[in-house]
Amino acid sequence: MPMPSMQTLINILKQLKPLAVQKMPLAKLPKITGRGQPLRPATTHWIKPMLVTEINYKTWDSESLLRAASYVGSREDKPVMTIHRE
């Protein structure tokens, strides 16, 4: 899967910025990042879960993280509240 274009990345950033929150919205901090490194809360950016994005991925790992995930596109046709883990 090719990497998103620079314009796509700029558009995503414009959508994410207004959704930023200071406090972690999860009940429990994930142990690791998708790259197997410890999560560093001081450098992590949290957002309100208001956008739906389609991704391709290989599998879920034991920490419930996606492996080999790649961006497909935004899904403005899908309401956030209808999304669930498949």
Main features:
13% helix, single chain, OB fold (Dihydrolipoamide Acetyltransferase, E2P), alpha+beta
Give your account of this protein's structure.
With 86 residues, this protein is an alpha+beta fold. It has one domain (6-82): Nucleic acid-binding proteins (OB fold (Dihydrolipoamide Acetyltransferase, E2P)), CATH 2.40.50. It is built from one helix and six strands; from the N terminus they run H-E-E-E-E-E-E. Strand 4 (59-60) and strand 5 form a beta hairpin. The radius of gyration is 14 Å and the shape is globular. The two termini are 21 Å apart.
Topology:
Layout (H helix, E strand, L loop, with lengths): L5 H11 L3 E2 L24 E2 L5 E4 L2 E2 L5 E2 L2 E5 L12
Antiparallel strand pairs: 1-2, 3-6, 4-5
Under CATH, the topology can be stated as OB fold (Dihydrolipoamide Acetyltransferase, E2P)
CATH architecture: Beta Barrel
How many structural units, i.e. domains? 1
Biggest sheet record: 2 strands, antiparallel
Give the overall silhouette. globular
Uncertain residue ranges? none
Which strand order do you get reading across the main beta sheet? 1-2
CATH level-4 homologous superfamily:
Nucleic acid-binding proteins
Tally of contiguous helical segments:
1
